[in-house]
Amino acid sequence: MICEILEVLYIPYELKTIQNKRQNTLVSVCKCIINENQEIIPAYELIEHNQKLSGSYQDYDIYLDELKKYDIPRAEEYLQKMFMLDYIMLNEDRHLTNFGIIRNVETLEWESICPIFDTGRSNNTNISEPYWDWNEGEVKCFTDHFITSETLLELFTIPLRTEQFEKLKAVSQEFKHLLFQYQTYTKLFDEQIEKIAKGFETRLELFYRKMREKGLLIEE
Q1: Which helix (H) or strand (E) holds 1?
Q2: In angstroms, how far is CA 108 from the centroid of its own chain?
Q3: What is the pLDDT of residues 152-199, one digit of tens each?
Q4: With 0-12 CB in 10 A as exposed, 13-18 as middle and 19+ as buried, what is 151?
Q5: CA 175/CA 202 separation, integer angstroms
Q6: Which domains are assigned to the chain?
Q7: What is the pLDDT at residue 144?
């Protein structure tokens, strides 16, 4: 839902349940990302030989230059919006094999940025409740270690419309609804769901405020 609102390429996932005598669990599923004429090249393979790599979020510029060199359509916009998603959701797992490009296996042409996939370790799902923090959470960005999510703000230059932020507000309610709908699988208590939903709402408000401070909000 967030990707739709941000207008960025993404892989649609569905929630499915597995119920049999051995397990009763919730899973996310998606169709194959590529067709028989394509392959995914992870970001790591695109820049691993660059002598200027620092192993920090500043390698963003090196990667973006590589995409522009091969005329990847809307490379900067889509890359930034992926990290906007990570900022909103506090994604802890955007390592260098969790994004990349799609290449044609016959022509070796770089066709597009790979749609966003695997954003599962987000919204504090990998952290115990006493450490849930939606104000200064941790993310990964061209690093093997965690950095403060506020660092991602330095990368953003692409503006968003106020209409998009209004739509994002509705996402927090849908998120809360889903948490209650699948409560028997997640084993979360009511008060935990309320806390998570409120935290996510706080995160959206923080994103809005930071983007406005950066002058990246288009009033309509």
Answers
A1: none
A2: 27
A3: 999 999 999 999 999 999 999 999 999 999 999 999 999 999 999 999
A4: middle
A5: 13
A6: 2-218 (1.10.1070)
A7: 86
Q: Which residues pair with residue 10 across a beta bridge?
A: 116
Cβ pair 101, 46 in contact under 8 A:
yes
Tokens 């270690």, residue located? 145
115 within 8 A of 190, measured Cβ to Cβ: no
Question: Is the distance from CB of 10 to CB of 115 less than 8 angstroms?
Answer: yes
Which residues have CB under 8 Å from 168's CB, separation 6+? 2, 5, 88, 204, 207, 208
- DSSP type of residue 9: -
| pTM tops 0.90, yes or no | yes
* Residue pointed to by tokens 């990667």: 63
Closest C-alpha among 93, 69, 71, 89 to residue 81: 89
| Burial (0-12, 13-18, 19+ Cβ within 10 Å), 124 | buried
The answer to whether 18 touches 28, Cβ cutoff 8 Å, is: no
163's CB contacts (< 8 A; 6+ apart) are 220
CA 52 – CA 217 distance, rounded (Å):
33
